[in-house]
Amino acid sequence: MESCLRVLFIQTAFIGDAILMTSMVESWSAAHPNDEIHVCVRKGNEGLFRGHPFVHEVWVWDKKGGVVSRYCKLFQLARRIRQRAFDAVFTPHRHASSGWLTVFSGANIRSAFSSHPLAKAMTHLVPHRMEAGWHEVDRNHELIAPWVEGKDLPRLHPNPLDLERAATVLADHDSGVVFAPLSQWGTKQWPLEQWQALILQVNQEHPQWKIVLMGGRQDALELDAFADRLCLPQVNVVAGWGLLEAAALMKRARAVVTNDSGPLHLASAVNAPTVAIFCSTSPDFGFGPLATHSRVVETTEALPCRPCGLHGHPSCPEQHFRCGTGVQVRQVGEAIDELLNEPT
User: Fold this and answer.
1) Is 160-341 CATH 3.40.1080.10?
2) I need a labelling partner for 150 at 20 to 30 A (CA). Which of 23, 31, 263, 319 fits?
3) Taking a C-beta distance cutoff of 8 angstroms, is the pair 178, 257 a contact?
4) 256 pairs with which residues across the strands?
């Protein structure tokens, strides 16, 4: 009989990275259902695992505060993790902080990418292959390949209360479309003028559909102002919902239309039909949609400056933002129509 291991997955980066890590959790649980699985994420992302059916415990690093406060909290977290005596620790996060948690854990198995700054202290290393055709999920699974066969996709587990709240906005499945127009990276955000034109077009073609504008708590004022400009009775602003509540709402929608940002990965994790708009970044980086029915929309213009970085920038370094303005409303509208006409 296989011995049960205590396993920890560490990903303290942004929400999209934490969601993509869930594919490793799903795969490990399927291969080793008796193991005790833990995850470690940055504060704010722990809601992804609320009531999770097979995650034993969520460990949280609160990064808020100054440098001294942040790293005092990291040290305290590391001590608690070490006391739990993990057998295996895996970190797809390529920053020293996550690596230090991995090393200090004292686990016999410590797996990371070979480009990690603490690579020499790991027991298992694999290359981080930034190649076309490789999704981040594929790269992450290389870290657990010696212990797991096969590959599951990211998955979130909204509970009945999450689904119930989603039903207050979209009472029937397929009764509306979720739009996530904002991004913390300026060059990842398709211009709001074009979002407005798209939503008005969708409303004209499908006046019976509800329009849901989704964002975080920090987006509430901007989304309210955007809704006022649209001046449509069908518009609902959903800002600051819990992560699983937002995922449940996406699961009920006919489609989710989003930038290359966190909502894209939320949609993938509940297999919601997705249209993803890529401006300064590229799906070749390996962060495209994973839903069964999905489309990627990009500018058709060959721009020598694109992509200009893995995460984008606050504003266009070339001061023209043609990678964003060059994505036409017609392109996105056609992608939505293609998506909705696909056989299920």
Assistant:
1) no
2) 263
3) yes
4) 178, 274
